[in-house]
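Notes from the 1:1 (GR / supervisor)

We went over the backlog. Supervisor wanted to see one worked example end to end before approving the batch request, so GR pasted a single chain during the call. The sequence is below; no edits were made to it. Supervisor asked that the structure be written out right there so they could see what the output format looks like.
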Amino acid sequence: MNFFEFLDKLKRNNNSVILYCLLNRIPIIVLGEDSDKIDDFLIELSELVHFRKEYVFYTDFVSREDYENLIANENIDYNYQRAHVRCPCNVSFRALSQFDNLYSWLIGLKIPEKKEELVFIKNLIKRNTNNLLYIKITSNAISIEIEGVNSKVIDLTLEQNIFKKISQDTEKSIVKMKRVLSDKITTNRLDKDLLKTLLDFEVEKNELKKNIFKREIQNFYSGSKRAFFILSRLNLLNNIGIQTRVGSKTLLETIDYEEAPIERICSFIKKEWGDDYSDLIEDGKKAIMGDKIVSLWG
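Structure output shown during the call:
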């Protein structure tokens, strides 16, 4: 299943919730009736966060010790690529029984025939995590359900803007492509079916959406990483007794990325690298460095 075709069947806000959970490493459980379809969709989801290293349970590792060895460098090297785990349907119950931390996992789950079995599995999942997202795909409907996170409270500005950008930029590109062909075509010389085929860019549209999405996600990730490097150095100054903070406007201008609120960037930094630097941000105030008042904002 193409991810963007899937998104077209959901409400726009639900699209943003899925992306929010991916970026914030909230476990995602994909339920359905067709294992192959679910596993293909897990691959699509995994590819959306291309800046992380994918590990497949029961292919790249089989035990908790194996997994901890794979991600050991995350705790000592900030440049080390962060991991996420894709768990196919055929080994999902084994993973749920074995692992008590599903942070940044994408898990496929075929809906069991007996309702009580599904209740048991969901209780098992709850035992391992407080925050998670369910995506249910059946032949009749597609739905999502988020637990532990109030989707009405979280700021989805970034995610909504990304999907808006995808829609706008894709349409602009398609219009340009059609215009170039239309200018070269004398319509009265062509069969209508042939003309329709020539101007049909549906396949290209999906590819464009993927490329634009990847570009926007990469821009956010790169901007957040630049912010992380700056804030980590400010934190070092604080740790050695030189108290300092930075204004959000200055930080956004410095990292050359202003498409997301600074709070969203700090939230991502905390989830991606494990450090909370929100207390280093200030607006419209002056930061004190030793006995000197230093301006750190624009």
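Supervisor's comment: The first helix runs from residue 3 to 7.
Batch request approved.
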